[in-house]
Amino acid sequence: MTAAPKAQPVVQFAGVSKSFGEVKAVDDISFDIRRGEFFSILGPSGCGKTTTLRLLAGFEAPDEDGGEVRLLGETVNKKRPYERKIAMVFQNYALFPHLTVARNVSFGLEQRKTPKTEIEGRVQRALEMVRLNPEVFSGRMPGQLSGGQRQRVALARALVLEPAILLLDEPLGAIDLKLRKEMQLELKALNQQLGTTFVYVTHDQQEALTMSDRIAVMDTGRVAQLGTPAEIYENPRTAFVARFIGESNFFDGRADRRTGGQWVVARPGGGTFEVPDHPSVSQAQDVRIAVRPEWMDVQKPDSIPPGENALVGIIRDIIYLGETMHVIVTVPGTGDVTVALRNEGQLIKPLLWKRGDTAAVAWLPEDCQILEQE
Amino acid sequence: MSMPIPRWLIGFAGVVYFFLHLPVLVLVVFSFNDSKFSVDWRGFTLQWYQRLLERPDILRGLKASLIVGGAATLISAVFGTLLALALARQRFRGRRMFEGFIYVPIVTPEIVTGISLLLLFALLKIPLGLTTITIAHVAFCISFVVIVVLARLEGMDENLEEAAMILGADEVTTFWKVTVPQLWPGILSGALLAFTMSFDDFVITSFVSGPGSSTLPIVVYGMVRKNVEPSINAISTIILLATAILIYLADRLARAK
Q: Exposed site from A1, A90, A232, B187, fewest CB < 10 Å?
């Protein structure tokens, strides 16, 4: 990896829209993907992430006056998939069932008129790269492979072309958790080692956070937020992003007055909380904030540390999750607030709280994430 | 969940099978019977099979059947496959209706098909012969190919063709290197069914055949009308065996992965 500025984006979406009949699957999206980065497109099903990938692959074309898709600076709206020199791994792998593993991997090389003498060596190296022993697997048919092995063959078939851009459409969706975690790290390592730009579509937020350099979160055909995993997790722009990535507690109110660089927000049911100064907050304006469960604490109502926001409620439940304990506090006027406490060992240092206790949820004003109105 | 099957039900099924296949069994057995009057068993012989080879009308009929069957199968396989591709891949108005029409030739009474084709050939002034028989056979054989290939297409992974294209194959290459190999068992299976249907057809053929263009079933029918002799059992056994083998192969191909 070089620190040099990456001059030209490898992929550019400039105001791209794609409709299917009346439905706008992709609605005026614009963003760049930089050379060599691991870029994820994350969102729930039906958010337009797969259509975005298919626009990039050339399986779909943008609408008339539906913006421009550019690959390496060149507008490719009308280019067929085979004219694009990109590679793709499909969700169901899409291995050719009538061809051996070796013939599957060499398919792209043959199409691109690679000299015969070169093909065998490259196929071998590609299989080794995805940790399949060529001697064992070359002659097998896809039907004789396990899901994880098919996955690796599909990856080899794409990587053997040494593409500038590799598209991956939820490639880990169909394999079990343990193998998936392993593959996540392997994919990230391949991305760094090869310098290939990875464009990865997934609905799994954990997966996106683990692997990505940057994430575009999509919602109903639009990009809801684009940023690094930390930016997205720690500073979600909208309630949708806050809810979709990780867990969040939401609080509403109206900006009441400003004191010492902070706004005091009045809650509809009475009481206040404070939020840091923010360009989108002004006098008498509705404010919605999100706070992550792990940034909150449970306190006795009569001993709240000064400067912290606190809301009093009743503990409805305590859930043991191993690494953490979730304390669910029902706060009048807000509903259930989840607080995640680090588990310090329930057998040695058990939690002081129990169900039915009156307790305050407390958090620092700077841990409030002020959300844009949707 | 499986219920125990009562004994009497198994027995009943056995009786039904016996009843269904008894006539065929009798036919096969008597094709080896060393007696001109085929009512009682006089010992094993192959003479009726040998006799077939000495009958030029049967050999001519067989030749006609093979020519018609081969031509009708080839035409049906090509056009049936294209039709199935159009129905499965293209979006056009009335696609569902056209898909339904595929079943019409199968359910239309053969006598109706026969008469309508005869009428058509008369209107167009096409002389009856091997050509008209072939056209008539294509008219019902094509449905079998379309149905089998459509089923194959529906079971095909739709990403395969996209995968080929993103790997650098254009539409034509993708069709030949990915689509056709995937459809191949279906096309072959449909073709075998088509050949069987063509080879066995009597009713429609009887309407559209002309002088000197009799297929094997027509010849056999003529033989029965003149005089019943055991070589009819022999030729029937051969037709039966050939049909059974073709149907078996077609079924195996249709199930191929």
A: A1
Per-residue pLDDT of chain B (257 residues; tens, 9 = 90+): 567 778 889 899 999 999 998 988 888 888 888 887 757 788 888 888 888 888 888 889 999 999 999 999 999 999 999 999 999 888 788 888 888 888 988 899 999 999 999 999 999 999 999 999 999 999 999 999 999 999 999 888 889 999 999 999 999 999 999 999 999 999 999 999 999 999 999 999 999 998 888 999 999 898 888 877 788 888 889 889 988 998 898 888 877 76
Topology of domain A11-243, per CATH? Rossmann fold (3.40.50)
What residues have CB less than 8 Å from A73, skipping those under 6 apart? A8, A12
Q: Residue A334 corresponds to which tokens in the numbers above?
A: 């807000």
Nearest Cβ partner for A111 among B157, B162, B173: B173
Residue B159 has its nearest CB partner, among A82, A92, A112, at: A92
Question: Could you tell me if residue B106 is inside a domain?
Answer: yes
**What is the number of other CB atoms lying within 10 angstroms of the CB of residue B171?**
13
Q: Other C-beta atoms within 10 Å of A149: how many? A: 18
CB distance B167–A161 less than 8 Å?
A: yes
A-chain residues near B178 (CB < 8 A): 96
Report domain extents, chain A.
11-243, 247-370
* Neighboring chain B residues of A111 at a CB cutoff of 8 Å: 167-169, 173
Closest residue by Cα to residue B187 from B69, B66, B67, B85: B85
For residue A101, the tally of other CB atoms under 10 A from its CB is 27
CB A340 within 8 A of CB A326: yes
Between chain A and chain B, the number of residue pairs with CB atoms below 8 A apart is: 60
pTM for this structure? 0.81
Q: Which range marks the domain in which residue B200 is found?
A: 52-255
Contact A31/B at CB under 8 A: no
CATH class, range A247-370: mainly beta
CB of A21 within 8 Å of any CB in chain B? Answer: no
User: Which residues, numbered 42 to 81 in chain A, qualify as contacts with chain B under a Cβ-Cβ cut-off of 8 Å?
Assistant: 57-59, 80-81
